[in-house]
Design goal:
487 residues, alpha+beta, 2 domains, 5-stranded antiparallel β-sheet, two-stranded antiparallel ribbon, 19 helices, 44% helix, globular, disordered N terminus
């Protein structure tokens, strides 16, 4: 790289340096004709990266890992995982690379990570490539989640490679440049535990504490505090998913980050008509990761983390298990508290409202939404108007509104705060028909629909003239929606 490029970015290779057992040095495959599709300039600035440099040819080579600073040591990370409940002892980054860490404007490190950069030793028969549609999906949905205030990995860029990739048809290839607090997963700890090397497990836990939960280092047992902190972070995260109707789609243990960030947007979608059984993943035939199951799956995954950490929790395994069970019991309490507080906020209920009354209102309205197949996001946004006395927009969403009529009277008697509701109930989400429309157009070299949708969902709470179609439910002929991971 030139001196200008070298001075543009400084990578740390801490993970690659300290965890040789969990990282294989590797290089991204060369791209025949890299072309920038989208660049997150505000995020680049937060990382101290010059957007003008990133848009240059040399910058594109950095974004796809073809030309990295000398101090960067790209690695494919090793991890294990339970996939749809079945344990796989060796997964890892099959088509991804960790380029290294960069200091963010907040003073904390961020991982710079690639998806679609070619086969690695963990590829397991895959070709290592990614295509334009799924990489733009992750960019779009992760940035929408960030705008909604939900902890998430971020997307820095998507670069088309100029390579045609074979899926059901030939599709244009692309690389996503992803930014995360780290890529430590529950599966990382499962892998370390499976090696039988307790010293490695301890080093990994120390790394997680330093990187994500430094206060745990002051605890009597830092590893116990670490586990409790991860439980709390995941309880809060999944509650936030549920509150906006987000369905992750593939909550394997290798897709749950220790940081509490949403990670790995594959077959994900936002629920439209309220349906607790909503499933959008093409491969989730049994509904394991359905909307309503997400809290239970998160708890199950955390139990797998507890199993991995047992040697660090106590020298006596029986006492370690006892502590893990007790700590895991906190998940349901913390999730329920976060969900209840979030639903009260969506209904505009003031602090000090009777919890039993609020809970009853929540249960009743969700049952009415399900029975009427009512659009979840639109209903709560329109409910803000009902708090101002304009009841008909919400009422008209019910095919049989008599149940809503009784409910809305009891709710309005509690004097809901309409302005507060508009701050938590989005007008715009990445609606599935609009996502598919944007990705189809982008695959055919038309990025305008993607850019318009991105603009809407990254300012989700402010209604703007001209964006009405971005707040509207899918047309009736859109049909059953299924998403794919892109491999």
């Amino acid at each position: 790289m030139s001196d200008t490029a070298k001075s543009a970015v400084t990578f740390d290779g801490r993970f690659a340096r300290e965890f040789a057992e969990l990282a294989i040095p590797w290089r991204a495959e060369d791209a025949p004709d890299p072309q920038l599709l989208v660049l997150n300039e505000p995020l680049a600035a937060d990382l101290g990266l010059d957007p003008a440099f990133l848009r240059s040819h040399e910058g594109l080579l950095l974004l796809i890992g073809n030309a990295v600073p000398a101090e960067a040591t790209p690695v494919a990370q090793a991890y294990a995982g339970h996939q749809f409940g079945w344990y796989a002892p060796r997964l890892g980054d099959g088509r991804a690379l960790l380029l290294g860490e960069i200091a963010h404007a907040d003073g904390q490190l961020r991982d710079i990570h690639l998806k679609g950069s070619g086969r690695t030793p963990f590829a397991r028969g895959g070709d290592g490539w990614a295509v334009v549609g799924p990489m733009l999906r992750e960019y779009l949905v992760s940035e929408a989640m960030h705008a909604l205030g939900i902890p998430t990995t971020r997307s820095l860029a998507v670069v088309a490679t100029g390579r045609q990739v074979q899926r059901e048809t030939l599709l244009p290839g692309a690389v996503l440049t992803r930014v995360a607090s780290s890529h430590l997963r529950i599966g990382s700890f499962q892998y370390a535990r499976a090696t039988g090397n307790v010293a490695l497990l301890r080093r990994l836990a120390d790394h997680a504490i330093t990187r994500h939960y430094p206060a745990a280092a002051e605890g009597e047992n830092p590893y116990a505090v670490l586990f409790q902190a991860v439980v709390a972070a995941q309880a809060s995260l999944v509650a936030r998913w549920m509150l906006v109707g987000f369905v992750h789609g593939v909550m394997n243990t290798d897709n749950m980050a220790i940081s509490g960030e949403t990670i790995d947007y594959g077959p994900c979608a936002f629920m439209e008509a309220f349906d607790p059984a909503a499933v959008y993943s093409s491969i989730d035939e049994g509904g394991r990761y359905a909307y309503r199951n997400q809290p239970l799956v998160a708890e199950w995954n955390l139990a797998r983390l507890a199993e991995s950490l047992l040697p660090l929790l106590h020298d006596d395994e029986e006492k370690a298990v006892e502590f893990a069970v007790e700590s895991l019991g906190g998940f349901r309490r913390q999730y329920s508290a976060a969900w209840s507080a979030g639903m009260s906020a969506k209904l505009g209920l003031q602090d000090g409202s009777d919890d039993d009354v609020a809970s009853g209102l929540v249960d009743e309205i969700l049952a009415l939404l399900q029975a009427g197949h009512v659009d979840y996001t639109s209903f709560f946004r329109r409910l803000g108007r009902a708090a101002r006395g304009q009841i008909e927009p919400a009422r008209s969403m019910f095919p049989e509104p008599s149940g809503f009529d009784g409910w809305v009277q009891r709710w309005r008697a509690l004097d809901p705060d309409a302005d507060a509701m508009d701050r938590v109930n989005p007008a715009y989400i990445p609606r599935n028909h609009l996502v598919e429309e944007a990705l189809d157009a982008a695959t055919a070299d038309d990025l305008a629909p993607f850019e318009r949708l991105l603009d809407a969902v990254t300012t989700p709470f402010a209604e703007r003239p001209g964006l009405e179609r971005y707040a509207a439910a899918a047309p009736e002929d859109f049909g059953t929606y299924r998403t794919f991971c892109g491999t």
